[in-house]
Amino acid sequence: MNNDAKGTRGDAGTSGSHSSPGLYVHVPFCATRCDFCAFYEERPTAESVRRYLAGMEREAALLGGPLAVETVFWGGGTPGVLAAADLRRLGEITLSCCAAAPREWSVELAPGSVTGARLAVLRELGVTRISMGAQSFQPALLEALGRRHSPAQIHRAYERIRAAGFARVNLDLMFALPGQEEDAWLADLRAAVAMRPEHISTYCLTFEEDTALWVKLSQGRVKLDREREAALYERTWGELAGGGFAQYEISNFARPGHECIHNLNTWRMGSWIGLGPSAASQHAGWRGANPSDLDAWLAGLARGERAATERVALTEALLAEDALIFGLRMNAGVDLAALRGRHPGADWAAADAFAARLEGEGLAEREGDTLRLTLKGRLVADAIGVEALGVLSGMQ
């Protein structure tokens, strides 16, 4: 499992909605559960994979025919736990949803799941981008996270991906891990840069309820250290900038022209369609999610239902609020005038007051109509996002 994209709320607020939707496919299988992971997943068996693929065919049929899909993202879980033949079948189901070849097709892989047979199938299907969850190059830290790969496996997997002809690769890394010193984190960053991927995602460790890591926190076996997190954020940004990676979102860095298009569409409040258990959708005026349970998902499909969980109408206030929250996570910031033009019915007086407060506290700056976070603001972007909830709907 990695965190490159999961089909959630978001908008950069600067370029408007994409006319073509993205397609997110959730593969809910993992061989083992990492200590930090709170995503829905389960152990694969021959029967559960068979039922999953049959369900995917049924859900794809419910879309009513091929759509003008611009991007595809397979996440999980770990798509790479599927056998090559099952990957091919899933790919054929995915392509049946697309009126033409997608512009970008990303697939998440764990280092231990990268094989020549799987990569050959992905290349034949038209996958353009591999996102690999390395997390760390330190054996002790990988063990502490519950990861089942070694640093040597990361390098071997990367070499296989390149040998298979993939021109776009993302590496996921995690920092602020229990027992991780700053020198170890800088060594991880430098090791990743030295491999010369096109994209690097860096995620600060979070403590999600119902995870093994949350239990350790509640027992006092690990502790939060916000000052240390902030220091590591700043070192990360400087280190990757020096390595030729431009930050375009709080956790995401790319060489020029290699930003993840699927994620950009999500953050910019484009539409996306989610297939598979727990996958979210935002399309045709509504937002919803599939049940995070294989049996419940299949039962819903048998009734002709999809994305029926937490289903809400996309109001102007909701869309504008998401644009503000996730747009501020983008280095480009939020074009408030353009956002107001798209969603005039939101509470813009409250939004202007919120923006003014961020400026007054040195957390944001304005350049014309564009509001973007300062370095000080980016260090507390999550807290700012929580404060922004309800601003444009007048519910604060």
Automatic annotation (TrEMBL):
Compartments, record wording: Cytoplasm
Job of this protein: Probably acts as a heme chaperone, transferring heme to an unknown acceptor. Binds one molecule of heme per monomer, possibly covalently. Binds 1 [4Fe-4S] cluster. The cluster is coordinated with 3 cysteines and an exchangeable S-adenosyl-L-methionine.
Molecular function per GO: 4 iron, 4 sulfur cluster binding; coproporphyrinogen oxidase activity; metal ion binding
The protein's required cofactors: [4Fe-4S] cluster
Family per similarity comment: Belongs to the anaerobic coproporphyrinogen-III oxidase family. HemW subfamily.
PROSITE patterns: RADICAL_SAM (PS51918)
NCBIfam families: hemN_rel
SMART domains xref list: Elp3 (SM00729)
Domain Radical SAM core: 15-240
UniProt-listed Pfam families: HemN_C, Radical_SAM
Source organism (scientific name): Termitidicoccus mucosus
Protein name: Heme chaperone HemW
